[in-house]
Specification:
heterodimer, A: alpha+beta, Beta Polymerase, domain 2, Cytochrome-c3 Hydrogenase, chain B, three-stranded antiparallel β-sheet, 13 strands, about 15% strand, globular, B: Alpha-Beta Plaits, 2 domains, 8 helices
């Protein structure tokens, strides 16, 4: 305990008050992380705030030996899971946190939230029916209604954050691709944007377009995957098969372009590893054909009343909650809170492409979440057409510039299918000295606690699928 | 509902004929890296540093690639095309003994392979043409699940081969394990394995499941799933393709041999 401690705690509190005021004024809370290079080093607490056009970092340093600080969660509720992760990682105690249980480390099952006659808990997971990622849902129920849901997410915690440290950026981008495997391109982009910001370099225009192609194809594949799962949950065998067929076609197109079905190995610091192997004219024809196929199938699905009945009013997120939490991606858009980085903080090829603004929605239920995804798929095909045409005009260009920064720190972001991916990257001696990835899956998954108003057990698969998140990306 | 009847008939049959016939998409696939004849290379010293997962080793001027560590980043092929090349085909490599993934193969593995083959054949004789699979995610990045799910789609359609997924481990013959072996999943994985009736076959799906891949050094993983359950078939790939998973499953049930021949 040092005498400076009260000052430091006052500093932390002042920062949190500032953050609270900024979020109330319209900025978005985009993350909180803590880093301590070695055990007896000071801890740096970094809060990220998304403003119009940028993402800023507010930082405060706790001197060595300080193990407690005033919690942010009572002021900014969206920090709820972030502070639990920091507690798990470094043992720091946020005083005043409403529920400081382990999140990414194993902990005892949480006490039941609701009490009453006949209430019981259905533990569901981590090994669940179907081919799904490992997570445990504790469904508190009197039989059909779901008054409360608890999640235990630690099972597949892989220690990704720490693994970044010491890697060369060229290797670290491969790990970023595997941080959230279904959003490989977006994670690689966010990481590379940070590295490129440190180096002060930008990918050549042709590379920026190739990045757009892969990012949008990844979005389409992910949204089709959600459609597969929703159609499957509704028992529509043909629709499930058709959506799966289109998803496979998209993944095959990606693999014909780069050799990986997930677009891996494409994005590297300074550009892309190679031009697409597919001839631009052929690519353009493929996109055109796929766009027609998917649009027709989506229209048919959205005209199947037995399907829509299961989604309408299911798992609603209120616009107020979406706003205060800063809900990302389609989940936010469906509840009227749209902050799409391709539009608001554009990168790579997006500044020169007409990214349409999200349509206004407010219902925030599973149906609107799917509508938003179809709108995004439609827009993605539009962007793909334009990007492919632009790329065809740049056939002789270079695809990569030298980008080997030695030291520095920067934020990088990208809009994954799930929403914003944010990387806080620190380099020293040409290697990663610290890297804090934050996926939209992590930021959004906590919202699943709040969307079971009036829903029953059989709605669960629809709600989970409509969130479209990845557990790997959430628990790292 | 009638719209779906007609839509289901569109495009005709989209299902691959593999393994009965070859599939052009699978044949054109490039798999993990393999070493080339390096006898005319001046220096082999810098080759091991190329690989982010340490898959490349040089002993007595023999360059070896451990395909169970290869994450298919392609750096060795791009930077030293004289020393490394992609392997061809989407169906593998799927092997019975972990050491077989080290290319060129170490001579002492032959005996172990023969023994493993005999052990597997003994068990698969009971499985015949109706096989049920249980999948467990032990710390994957999520992509392996996509590729396994693809088997249920119309393009791969494993049901045509008499293979089905089951929710209950009590009904399962084959355990598909993905992921780097997250310590939090060791218990549930073991419980699932124990709940399966004998005879059972375990497939480690993907480079992460074999060696941990890029997460091999993480203290929250065991560097592959072999630490938690006894693995019978090792399937490399980051992630493996649906063809690779299909191939591993057909080896598990004794329909194919690991070198790609029909056994019945």
């Amino acid at each position: 305990m040092t005498t400076a401690e009260p000052d430091v705690l006052a500093q932390v509190m002042a920062l949190w008050k500032d953050l609270e005021a900024r979020v109330a004024a319209g900025d978005r809370f985009a993350g909180l992380s803590a880093s301590r290079p070695a055990d007896d080093d000071p801890v740096a607490l970094s809060a990220h705030v998304a403003t119009a056009g940028d993402i800023e970092t507010l930082e405060v340093t706790l001197p060595p030996g300080v193990t407690r600080y005033p919690a942010l969660t009572p002021l900014v509720g969206a920090a709820f899971w972030y502070e639990r992760v920091i507690h798990d990682q470094l043992g720091l105690v946020p005083d005043g946190h409403p529920r400081l249980a382990p999140l990414i480390l194993p902990g005892d099952p949480l006490p039941r939230h609701v009490a009453g006659y006949g209430l019981f808990t259905i533990p569901h997971g981590p090994v669940r029916s179907g081919v799904l990622e490992s997570i445990e849902y504790l469904v508190e129920t009197p039989g059909e209604a779901i008054p409360h849901l608890n999640m235990r997410v630690f099972y597949k915690h892989r220690g990704v954050t720490r693994r970044f440290t010491g890697m060369r950026p060229a290797d670290a981008v491969l790990l970023a691709e595997r941080t959230e495997g279904i959003a490989s391109v977006a994670h690689a982009l966010a990481f590379c944007h940070a590295v490129e910001r440190i180096a002060g370099c930008a990918p050549p225009p042709a590379a920026a377009l190739v990045r757009v192609l892969h990012a949008e194809l990844e979005r389409i594949a992910n949204h089709l995957d959600v459609a597969v799962r929703l159609a499957d949950a509704a028992g529509l065998a043909v629709a499930t098969a058709r959506m799966a067929l289109h998803k496979e076609r998209v993944m095959r197109l990606v693999s014909r372009m780069c050799g990986s079905r997930f677009g891996r190995g494409v994005v590297v610091p300074g550009g892309v590893s190679a031009p697409p192997r597919l001839d631009p004219a052929e690519l353009r024809a493929e996109i055109e054909w796929l766009a027609r196929q998917v649009a027709g199938e989506a229209a048919a699905l959205m005209a199947t009343s037995s399907f829509l009945d299961r989604l309408r009013g299911t798992g609603p997120l209120t616009p107020a909650r979406a706003r205060t939490h800063g809900a990302l991606g389609p989940i936010g858009k469906a509840a009227g809170f749209a902050d799409d980085n391709r539009l608001t903080r554009p990168y790579d090829g997006y500044p020169d492409l007409p990214v349409p603004a999200a349509r206004a929605h407010s219902a925030g239920d599973a149906l609107v979440r799917l509508r938003v995804r179809w709108e995004e798929v439609d827009q993605s095909f539009g962007l793909l057409r334009l990007a492919a045409d632009k790329l065809a005009e740049r056939s002789g260009d270079q695809f990569r510039v030298r980008c080997e920064p030695a030291a520095g720190r920067a934020l990088g972001w990208a809009e994954a299918p799930q929403g914003e991916v944010l990387y806080d990257v620190m380099l020293a001696d040409g290697r990663v000295a610290g890297c804090q990835p934050r996926s939209a899956s992590f930021h959004n998954l906590v919202l699943m606690h709040e969307v079971f108003a009036g829903d029953i057990l059989t709605d669960f698969p629809f709600i989970e699928a409509s969130f479209g998140l990845s557990v790997a990306g959430a628990v790292l | 509902m009638s719209i779906w009847v007609l839509r289901g008939l569109r495009d005709g049959v989209v299902t691959t004929r593999w393994p009965a016939k070859s599939d052009p998409y699978a044949d054109a696939w490039r798999g993990p890296a393999r070493p080339l004849d390096t006898s005319d290379l001046a220096s082999l010293d810098d080759l091991t540093d190329l690989c982010p997962t340490g898959a490349i080793t040089v002993t007595d001027s023999t360059v070896r690639v451990d395909q169970g560590r290869c994450i298919l980043c392609g750096r060795c092929v791009a930077e030293r095309p004289g020393a490394f090349a992609w392997s061809q085909g989407a169906t593998g490599p799927a092997v019975l003994v972990r050491e077989q993934l080290v290319i060129p193969e170490l001579p002492e593995t032959d005996e172990a392979v023969a023994a493993a083959r005999a052990r597997l054949a003994e068990r698969t004789a009971a499985l015949r043409r109706s096989v049920h699979i249980r999948h467990v995610d032990a710390g994957s990045d999520g992509s392996e699940e996509w590729e396994i799910q693809a088997l249920l789609g119309p393009v791969y359609d494993i049901h045509r081969l008499g293979v089905f997924f089951t929710a209950s481990p009590r009904h399962a013959d084959v355990l598909l394990v993905t992921g780097a072996g997250a310590r939090g999943m060791s218990g549930p994985l073991r419980t699932t394995y124990d709940a399966m009736p004998d005879p059972k076959v375990v497939i480690a799906v993907g480079t992460d499941a074999i060696s941990g891949g890029l997460l091999a050094g993480s203290e929250t993983t065991t560097g592959g799933v072999g630490a938690a359950v006894p693995v019978d078939i090792w399937l490399a790939g980051s992630p493996p393709t649906p063809f690779g998973i299909l191939n591993a499953l057909l080896i598990a049930v004794g329909y194919l041999t690991p070198d790609g021949r029909r056994s019945r």
